[in-house]
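Structure tokens
________________
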Amino acid sequence: MIDPDFEKTLTKFMRNHWNVLDSNSDKQQLMKIFELYRADLKQYLQAVEHSFMQHIIKSVPDFNWVAFGQLFDSRKNIIDEQLLDTLLSFEDPDSFKSFIKDYRNSY
């Protein structure tokens, strides 16, 4: 489900930063890495979002973005778990910390 280029971007970030956070990390350290994470991946996501929006606009002229957002919120339970965890990790430092710990534990 996750685009290979996105997976490469995410893996590169995790390899560079996963070892910084551990159970003894303080909030300031977490926030520093969290902001780096968001900045690194924001550029990638903007490019993907632009491409997605252009495709939708061309394919579905009367596409309703508000309805799409509502459907997305109501169907979180059917979205790929890895993708949802990744998306949630962009907004919440605690989710990010959990996300990076899971990555560390899997490698």
Notes: The two ends are 21 Å apart (CA to CA). The chain has a mean pLDDT of 76.
